[in-house]
Amino acid sequence: MSGSWPRVYVVTLNWNRAAETCACVESVLQSDYPRLSVIVCDNASEPESVADIRHWLGTQGAALRAGEWRELDRSGIGSSPPGSLGECVLIHTGGNLGFAGGMNVGVQYALQQQDADYVWLLNNDAVVDRHALSALVDHMRADLSIGICGSTLLEFTDRRRVEGYGGATYEPWLARSRAIGAFSDIGSVPQQSQDVERGMAYVIGASMLVSRRLLEAIGLMDESYFLYSEELDWALRARRAGFRLGYASRSLVYHKQGSSIGTSPQGGSDLSLFYLYRAKVMFTARHYRWLLPSVLAWLGWESFKFVLKGSPRKARATLRGMVAAWTGAHYQ
C-alpha cells in the first residue's frame, strides 16, 4: 500500500528561529503520512541558530524518523544524490534571500529528486496536525487540476480560532487581501471545499502543497518580491496556466502568525510594513498596471493613517517601501 502514496518533500525556511523550526519539523516527522522527506533551508542565520538545528537533527530528529541527515550548501544540491525515505536535509542558501528565494532553494532540491510528486511549503512558525499532509494529498489526488492546495490555518495560541480557510480573496483596485474565514471558530470550518475554492485568489503561504506538474509548467516563486505577494503572484500565474487552487479543510495547521519578521494581528514591524507596501506596488505594476493610480492613492491614505495614530516611523516605513518598489531597494 505504501508504494501507492506519492512522495512529498516538505520545505521550511529558517532565519534565526531554530526553536520554532525544530518544533515545525518535529510535528511533520510525527505525521501519519508514510512517504515524506524534510528540507530545512537556512537563510544565513547566526551560527548559534544553525548549531541548534544541527543538534536537534542529531538527537530528537534522529530519534523520530529522520534517520541520518545531511547538510549541504546551495552550490552542492545539484550534485547530491537522492536520499532515503524519511531523511532530513539542511541546506544553506548562502544569504538572506527572503521567503521566496529561500524556499525556492529547497524546491529546486526536491525537483532534482526524481521521485518528488509534491512539495509542501510550510512556514517554520507553524506546527501541523498529524493528518494534515494526508488530507492535503488526498484532496489534490481527487482533482488533478489543482496545482496549489491550502490548509485550515488556526491560531497557535487559540486552536479554535481560524486564521484562514486555506486562501484569501484579493481586491486589485486597492491591493487588499482578506483571508477567507478569518476570526471564525473551528466549528464553522466548511466540510465541502468548493465554495471556498471559488473565492480564492491565492493560497496563503503558511501552508502550500504544490504539484510537480505545476512547478514544471510555471516555475518557481518570483524572488524579486523578497517578502509578501509571492504566493499571490504564483497563484495568478497558476490560474492563467489552467490550474485550480484547492482547499483541504481537514488539513489543520497551527500558525504563530508572522513571528519570524515581527508581524502580528496587532500590527507590523517597520521591516514587515516596508516589504508589504513594496510588494503591493510591485504586484500591481506587474499585473494590474492600469490600477496603479487607485492603489497608490489607497496605500498613501493607509500610510497617512499611521501618522494620525501617532506612528510616524511606521508611516515612513510604508512610504519607503512604496518607493523601493520602483528602485528595487531593500530594507535598511
Describe the protein.
With 332 residues, this protein is an alpha/beta fold. It folds into two domains: 2-261, Alpha-Beta Complex (Spore Coat Polysaccharide Biosynthesis Protein SpsA, Chain A), CATH 3.90.550; 270-327. The protein is built from ten helices and 13 strands.
Keywords:
332 residues; alpha/beta; Spore Coat Polysaccharide Biosynthesis Protein SpsA, Chain A; 2 domains
Q: In a nutshell, what does this entry contain?
A:
This protein is of the alpha/beta class and about 325 residues long. It has two domains: about 1-260, Spore Coat Polysaccharide Biosynthesis Protein SpsA, Chain A (Alpha-Beta Complex); about 270-325.
Number of domains in the coordinates?
Answer: 2
Question: So what's the overall shape?
Answer: globular
Q: What is the N-to-C succession of helices and strands?
A: EHEHEEHEEHEEEEHEEHHEHHH
**Portion of residues within helices:** 25-40%
Range of strand content: 15-25%
Supply the CATH architecture of the largest domain.
Alpha-Beta Complex
Category from helices, strands and their pairing: alpha/beta
| Through-space gap between termini | 53 Å
Give the total of beta strands: 13
Low-confidence runs (pLDDT<50, min 5 residues)? 262-266
